[in-house]
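Side project, low priority. Logging it here so it doesn't get lost.
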Amino acid sequence: MSRNLRRWTGRLAALAAAGVFAVAAGLLLVRSPFKGYAGESAIVEIPFGTSTRAILETLERERVVRSRHLAYAVLRVVFRGQSLKAGEYRFEGPKTTEEVLRTLVEGKVVTYRVTIPEGLTADEIFDLVAGKGLATKAELDALFAQPGLFEGVPAGAPSLEGFLGPDTHVFTRSQGPLGIVSTLVSSFRRSLPDRFQERARALGRTPLEAVTLASLVEKETAVAAERAQVSAVYHNRLRVGMPLQCDPTTIYALRRRGLWTGTLTHDGLAVDDPYNTYAHPGLPPGPIANPGAAALEAAVAPADVPFLYFVAVGDGSGEHRFAVTYAEHLANVALFRRARTAQETASLALR
């Protein structure tokens, strides 16, 4: 073998050895978990429309992966033909480059659970959502005034009040305000009882009026067995032309005007607001809260009873006494006052 041939053979062998070493080193880096950020976790937000190159640069800058170049190679080999999804991601503890990329390929974004009980107002619901940092109150309030944007909200609804479904919701930051409110409205639609609109019309009510009535039922009683009876009282009053005189509507009117002090007074009952059913006959223009499925059912299935009045028992149970005549009602009011006085006396004695 000539001296030159031996020289080139040696160089090729050295290059081959170097190549094997480089591949081995690369495989080691790929398979070795990495955590370059200082805290326990790192939050990385990828806006919609971000290019693959920019995403990998962000992961490197946030010290979630060692190298954007290495990450690109893994993406081409392991996830060939798949794309990285936008959204908010949380990374905790050391992760291999493949594990990091798989999180983005599968879109395993950060989720936020928000539990919304029955009977909250839209303002209270939006406070819960804004408190999670998912949207600003101003953004949500702007959508509140545009019910026509959302499918399933009855015609004529003055706002989204009443049409934000109570439930435990799972939101993502990438949904944005419009996506979050759309989810809430979709939840309302799912909570409607079977044939809700048909049953409402059979009672002489539009779908909007039926949801409005359901919101009154929701705010008046938390006792399941009473919902159909409370519904009957309001249906009966509407039928004979009596004012509804529903305290929660007056409270809602005062809140709308920034006048609510926590106590319902005679002046409050006289406030000139369309939601005040002491000052204005019939149902208010729209719901005063967001009712649950049980209250919606009661609105279109009132009990077959002649009651026109009800008042709390006054013993803290949340139950009510119902009456047909005003004289019976006054007797029940007297019982309520005695029960309240007894409660207050017992409370003072314990101090």
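Brief comment: Residues 15-25 have pLDDT under 50 and may be disordered.
Revisit when time allows.
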